[in-house]
Each structure stands twice: as structure tokens, then as C-alpha cells.
Amino acid sequence: HALLGDHDALHLDFDNAIDYIVEKAGDINVYDIKIDGDYDGNSLLTSELLQPYFRDPSILKDIYKLNPEIVYDSQSDKVYEGLYTDFMKNEINLVEELLYKGLPVLIYNGQDDLIVQSPGTMKWVDRIHFTQSEEFRTKLFTPWKINGKVVGAMKSAGLLEFRIVNNAGHLVPMDRPV
């Protein structure tokens, strides 16, 4: 339906597709398919226990080098609006440029994410062109272990590494911080 330059139509088509899936799947959660209904992933960031930490001027200034006068929150309308036209934009060339410049690239995906699902991510990662492209594409995933426990799957070649994180949804760092 939408043309690539029509950002409003792209957002609308995406939202309609997600709404359809949620309706047909029985109120599945778009951020984590293991959860029914709304996702409370932001509760960790907004909990009363962590608010003093996230609002402490010395932590913001000294550790994170952030302006303590700005109120930081789990989401920002300004950031969303600033990135609005980047939605569904192909940025493989940026990843290729990083690899060409000799910078390591790690791409990860939560296995239980509906919005950015692992098979779709695997497809675009396999399209990245770099000196070890063929090796990367033909390589099989291997178990990714931490302390002997399988926590996901991974494959890599050269400076490109891709990991799928088990039991994690859209917000991987909150679902599986280690």
C-alpha cells in the first residue's frame, strides 16, 4: 500500500498489520509473544526504586555525562519524532560502511519479539555485503552460552556478529540484561 517516501502511510500500514496479528492471535503482546495483553516492560525504568538513581544529578553528570537538568524517561516523543522518517528505511549501507572501516558490528534480536522478529532480522543481516559475506551467510548458528547455560544462538564472520537472545522480546536489555 504505502510508498517508501510516504512515512505516514508506512506507519499506518505497519500499525494495521500489527493490530491484525494481535487480534487474530488472541491479544498477543507485540513486544514479547510469551505475554498476553499489555507489556509492562517500562515498569523497571519507572519503578519508585529506580527513580532516585535515574534522577540523581551526580550519576547523570559524572557517570553518564548527561545534562542533569533534562528529565530522562523510558520514552521520548522528541526522539520518536526525530526518527519518524527512518521507519522501515533500509540502512544496510551504514552497517556495510562500519565493517568496511574495520569496526566490529554486533546485531542482536530477542527471539520473542513480534515487532522486529528474528527471521526478518536474519534475512536483512544475510544481505550485508562485506569481505566475509559468503562465510557469514553459509555459517550455521551455534549455541551461545553463559556459565554453561544456553542463552541464545550466534554466528559470526570477520567483524560481523549476530545473536538471537532466548527468552527476550523487543526490549532485550530489560528482558535479559546479562
Automatic annotation (TrEMBL):
| Cross-referenced Pfam families | Peptidase_S10 (PF00450)
Among SUPFAM superfamilies, the record links this protein to: alpha/beta-Hydrolases
Query: Which GO molecular-function terms appear in the entry?
Result: serine-type carboxypeptidase activity
Mention one GO biological process in which this protein takes part, according to its record: proteolysis
Signal sequence annotation = none
Specify the superkingdom.
Eukaryota
**Family per UniProt?**
Belongs to the peptidase S10 family.
Q: What is this protein called?
A: Peptidase S10 serine carboxypeptidase
